[in-house]
């Protein structure tokens, strides 16, 4: 903008864009930067109110009295002369906001001044509206440059949120706020302010989270009203119906309202009409329109509208797949829901779509309408997934006396045990399932399960569900042998249903990965058909096993691919907070493996805030917080995060023991207690060896080697069985550390780097540099370059293996070394620095010795690997 005013480009610039995109702010900021000693700025404020008055936009800049009895052309000449006289020797700058609203004479004045010069125009205009011909001619005739300002991108929004909230905002919240604002800077600002004033933004573990509440402040409502404009009663009814029922079929909307009003709403840009599969549907043109319309619609009218919609669809046969869910929700919201079967079927459909909040509402209504055990079982599953396990147990206990038949009693046992085990952290809930247990719990939810009435024996044809759930529990209790036996029995049972087989498969896959064969684990999971993965809790078990296999495999790239696949998209786009939290933990683990520790720390903190303190995944999130902080050398944060992890640990989360204890070991390292770190890792390695979890043991051996305590014999034995992608590089590194082999360390660094494991690559390269420099090996400079390259990928890392002693060169030695590396001969260097050639050669000999190189040809690489001169 300053180059335009200075005359370095053309005669001006016009910024176009939608309302609220930031045009006016850009204009104000640009004008404020102009030097008033050099430029005379005339501000024209075009508004709808001034369009009917000649030169109304320039009313504040021109004298109150204009010349009497002059023509329009005379007024133009008079106005131009006045403005030039005001400018004097300074350059004239016209700052015109909303140029599309200029009255005809003001538009002609702007065009004349821009064409005649030497005035410069800086202006804004709304895209997509009628513009005066005199204004349009400005860019058509190449008098000014027109620049379109695009809406904010998602990344732009995240950066602005971080600045506005003085801290990072979690990814899902940022994405939702971007969707609500549609990249409009003005609306985003109002959204942030309303959310902060209404306590809808909360901070947990240093990350801001939006609760999902949308308090409509007066200023936010005014901003939306301004975009919507004046609305007639028929159009308002169209908007209300779409606000509560979108997406709604066009034909249905026309039947329920006034067709002419629908056309007018589309013409004014209030609704969007477009194809969806084989029908035409209607949605609101902006998400915030719905929030304002819904807030102002009387409850009685809402109920009438939705009841009428439900009746219209039911009268046509409700043939579409989503009609069931939509009609049930409309019946619920209009207080006309009476059919428990309809509510239960809709609840199952919402559950299968991972719409947990919708499904929970429908499940509660189905139970209240007399849906019996089937409704209670489904509601309990939903409540447990939504971190309300105590309520889930109460719902199940309320129907305990209504159970009929062995199949219902078995399902009740599985549901009751699952809610207590994973939701309440009650490890003894497994007794409800164990075929060796014969007692029923009769105590309140959350209390220990001892004593009670005898259970009736489970029929052999119903054992598969019990064994599948118990197998998963045994796995989480750290009992892999029992878990594997039960899971294999389920898969061998021809009566086992697809969901039970999926749970058993997930259990075995997790064990295979932990035992050192993640590829087989992934193949096992990939073989599952999608039909058995419709229930979110089953899908969660399967995808948790897949994620664990990828992390144990040491494949950050594969984790990234997984996080962009179907389950990840569904979990994040839908209302599945538990699944989204797990995915964020996996993102953090992948970032840590890559050595991107600042990102890993932020993601782990985000996951800790997303997950309820009562869930096992929250333990893993805090362990990752501690691990990333420790690797960055932040002992205080690592200790704090480890304390949070220990505070939340439960016996039902022993499956996470390897990751937790590795994080604990690195927390000890950060605190300067390497001895306790090694003891922690030694205990963990022995535990993994006893349990046959060679995959986890491999990563523990890697950590031991990184801390200078390699176990090469054990690594050699594991190499015969562990097939993880990163395993060959790990075993190569362990052997190289044990042997003090610089060339082998360099090879391990290259192998780690090829896998994207940049922190491990940097540590291996650091070890290679230390050894090779001591031996003055010719490979030392190349190893130092590998170190520099890997460190650039993990700049925040602060681990013991990276603490190498760099050679110190004097300022004069650096001068001479740089010149020599550039190919300058000793004699020329001596002349340039006023030294003798012999002195130059003596300096070079000392440089060679310090850097561990054998001549000039290796100087350049060695110098690039040195830290910068202070």
Automatic annotation (TrEMBL):
It comes from the Bacteria. InterPro entries: P-loop_NTPase (IPR027417), Sig_transdc_resp-reg_C-effctor (IPR016032), Tscrpt_reg_LuxR_C (IPR000792), WH-like_DNA-bd_sf (IPR036388). Residues 439-461 are annotated as: Disordered. One of its GO terms (molecular function) is DNA binding. One of its GO terms (biological process) is regulation of DNA-templated transcription. Residues 802-867 form the HTH luxR-type domain. This is LuxR family transcriptional regulator.
């Amino acid at each position: 903008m300053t180059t335009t005013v200075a005359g370095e480009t053309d005669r001006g610039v016009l910024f176009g864009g939608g309302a609220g995109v930031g045009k006016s702010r850009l204009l104000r900021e640009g004008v404020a930067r102009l030097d008033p000693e050099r430029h005379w700025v005339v501000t024209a404020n075009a508004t709808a109110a001034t369009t009917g008055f000649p030169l109304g936009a320039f009313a504040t800049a021109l004298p109150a009295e204009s010349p009497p009895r002059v023509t329009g052309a005379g007024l133009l000449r008079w106005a131009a002369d006045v403005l030039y006289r005001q400018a004097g020797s300074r350059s004239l700058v016209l700052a015109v906001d909303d140029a599309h609203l200029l009255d005809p004479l003001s538009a002609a004045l702007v065009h004349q001044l821009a064409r005649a010069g030497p005035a410069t125009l800086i202006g804004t205009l709304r895209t997509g509206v009628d513009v005066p011909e005199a204004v349009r001619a400005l860019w058509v005739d190449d008098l000014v440059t027109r620049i379109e300002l695009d809406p904010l991108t998602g990344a732009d929004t995240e950066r602005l949120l971080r600045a506005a909230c003085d801290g990072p905002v979690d990814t899902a919240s940022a994405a939702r706020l971007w969707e609500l604002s549609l990249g409009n800077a003005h609306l985003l600002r109002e959204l942030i302010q309303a959310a902060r004033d209404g306590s809808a933004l909360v901070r947990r573990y240093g990350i801001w989270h939006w609760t999902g509440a949308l308090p409509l402040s007066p200023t936010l409502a005014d901003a939306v009203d301004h975009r919507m404009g004046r609305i007639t009663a028929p159009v308002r009814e169209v908007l209300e119906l779409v606000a509560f029922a979108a997406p709604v079929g066009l034909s249905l909307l026309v039947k329920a309202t006034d067709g002419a009003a629908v056309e007018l709403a589309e013409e004014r840009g209030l609704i969007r009409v477009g194809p969806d599969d084989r029908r035409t549907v209607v949605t609101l043109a902006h998400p915030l329109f719905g929030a304002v319309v819904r807030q102002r619609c009387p409850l009685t009218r809402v109920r009438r509208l939705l009841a009428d919609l439900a009746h219209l669809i039911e009268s046509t046969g409700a043939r579409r797949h989503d009609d069931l869910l939509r009609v049930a929700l409309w019946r619920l919201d209009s207080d006309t829901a009476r059919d428990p079967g309809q509510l239960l079927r809709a609840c199952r459909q919402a559950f299968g779509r991972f719409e947990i909040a919708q499904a929970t509402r429908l499940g509660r209504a189905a139970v209240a309408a007399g849906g019996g055990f089937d409704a209670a079982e489904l509601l309990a599953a939903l409540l447990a997934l939504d971190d309300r396990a105590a309520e889930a147990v109460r719902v199940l206990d309320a129907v305990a006396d209504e159970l009929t038949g062995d199949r219902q009693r078995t399902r009740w046992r599985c549901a009751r045990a699952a809610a207590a085990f994973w939701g309440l952290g009650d490890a003894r809930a497994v007794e409800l399932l164990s075929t060796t247990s014969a007692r029923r719990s009769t105590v309140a939810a959350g209390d220990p399960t001892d004593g009670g009435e005898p259970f009736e024996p489970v029929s052999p044809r119903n054992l598969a569900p019990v064994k599948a759930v118990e197998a998963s529990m045994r796995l989480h209790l750290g009992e892999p042998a029992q878990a594997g036996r039960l899971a294999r029995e389920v898969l061998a049972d021809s009566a086992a249903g697809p969901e039970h087989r999926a749970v058993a498969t997930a259990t075995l896959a997790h064990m295979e990965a932990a035992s050192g064969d993640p590829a087989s684990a992934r193949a096992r999971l990939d073989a599952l058909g999608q039909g058995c993965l419709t229930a979110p809790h089953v899908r969660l078990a399967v995808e948790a096993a897949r994620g664990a296999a990828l992390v144990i495999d040491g494949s950050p790239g594969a984790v990234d691919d997984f996080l962009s696949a179907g389950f990840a998209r569904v979990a994040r786009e839908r209302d599945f907070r538990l699944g989204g939290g797990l995915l964020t933990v996996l993102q953090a683990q992948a970032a840590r493996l890559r050595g991107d520790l600042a990102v890993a720390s932020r993601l782990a903190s985000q996951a800790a805030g997303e997950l309820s303190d009562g869930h096992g995944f929250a333990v893993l999130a805090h362990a990752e917080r501690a691990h990333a902080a420790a690797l960055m050398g932040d002992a205080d944060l690592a200790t704090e995060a480890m304390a949070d992890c220990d505070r939340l640990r439960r016996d039902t989360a022993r499956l996470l023991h390897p990751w937790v204890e590795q994080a604990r070991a690195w927390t000890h390292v950060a605190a300067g207690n390497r001895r306790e770190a090694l003891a922690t890792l030694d205990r963990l390695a022995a535990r993994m060896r006893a349990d046959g979890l060679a995959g986890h043991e491999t990563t523990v051996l890697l950590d031991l080697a990184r801390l200078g305590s390699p176990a090469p014999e054990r690594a050699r034995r594991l190499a015969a069985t562990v097939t993880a992608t990163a395993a060959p590089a790990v075993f190569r590194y362990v052997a190289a550390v044990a042997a003090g082999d610089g060339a082998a360390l360099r090879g391990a660094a290259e192998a780690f780097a090829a896998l994207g494991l940049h922190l491990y690559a940097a540590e291996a390269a650091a070890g290679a540099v230390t050894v090779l420099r001591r031996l003055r090996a010719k490979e030392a400079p190349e190893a130092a370059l590998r170190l520099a390259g890997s460190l650039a990928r993990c700049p925040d890392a602060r681990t013991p293996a990276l603490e190498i002693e760099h050679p110190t060169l004097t300022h004069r030695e650096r001068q001479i070394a740089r010149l020599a590396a550039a190919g300058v001969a000793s004699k020329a260097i001596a002349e340039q620095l006023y030294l003798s050639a012999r002195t130059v050669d003596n300096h070079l000999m000392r440089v060679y010795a310090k850097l561990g190189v054998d001549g000039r040809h290796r100087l350049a690489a060695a110098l690039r690997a040195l830290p910068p001169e202070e």
